[in-house]
């Protein structure tokens, strides 16, 4: 069996799995990822899991570290453009869909 490269598609699928709520919330993605990409070996699956944890942590930290503004009864978080710029500088493979999900999930966690 040949080793698959960790493409943006694989990493974005991994990231999407890592942000699931419900029964898979905060669960390792290895098993679900192996179902979708059976050619990935154990080390690649672990690498995807590690990268996703790192990405989620970086996104959460960025939103948390940038002050929320209280405008009347509304809370405004850091501008999405600044968030996307920060994330893409470090992780240029993240899809627009996953950036939006990361941002909204990070805002949700910042309120907790």
Q: Unreliable segments (pLDDT under 50, ≥5 consecutive)?
A: none
Distance linking N and C termini: 45 Å
Please count the helical segments: 5
Q: What's the overall geometry? A: elongated
**Rounded to an integer, what's the Rg over CA atoms?**
15 Å
* Major sheet details: 2 strands, antiparallel
The spatial strand order of the largest sheet comes to 1-2
Mean pLDDT: 88
The amount of helix comes to 55-70%
Question: Which range does the strand content fall in?
Answer: 5-15%
Beta strand count: 2
How do the SSEs run, as a string of H and E?
HHHEEHH
Secondary structure category? mainly alpha
Précis, in short:
This protein is mainly alpha-helical. The chain has 5 helices and 2 strands; from the N terminus they run H-H-H-E-E-H-H.
What does this structure look like?
Helices cover 62% and strands 5% of the residues. The protein has 112 residues and is mainly α. Strands 1-2 form a two-stranded antiparallel sheet. α1 (8-18) packs across α3 and α3 (42-65) packs across α5. The model has no long low-confidence stretch (mean pLDDT 88).
Essential attributes:
5 helices; mainly alpha
């Amino acid at each position: 069996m040949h080793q698959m490269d960790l493409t943006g598609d694989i990493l974005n699928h991994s990231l999407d799995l890592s942000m699931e709520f419900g029964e898979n919330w905060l669960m390792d993605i290895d098993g679900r990822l192996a179902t979708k990409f059976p050619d990935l070996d154990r080390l690649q699956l672990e690498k995807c899991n590690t990268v996703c944890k790192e990405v989620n942590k970086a996104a959460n930290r960025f939103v948390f570290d940038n002050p929320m503004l209280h405008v009347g009864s509304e809370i405004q978080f850091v501008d999405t453009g600044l968030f996307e710029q920060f994330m893409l500088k470090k992780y240029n493979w993240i899809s627009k869909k996953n950036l939006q999900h990361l941002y909204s999930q990070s805002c949700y966690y910042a309120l907790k």
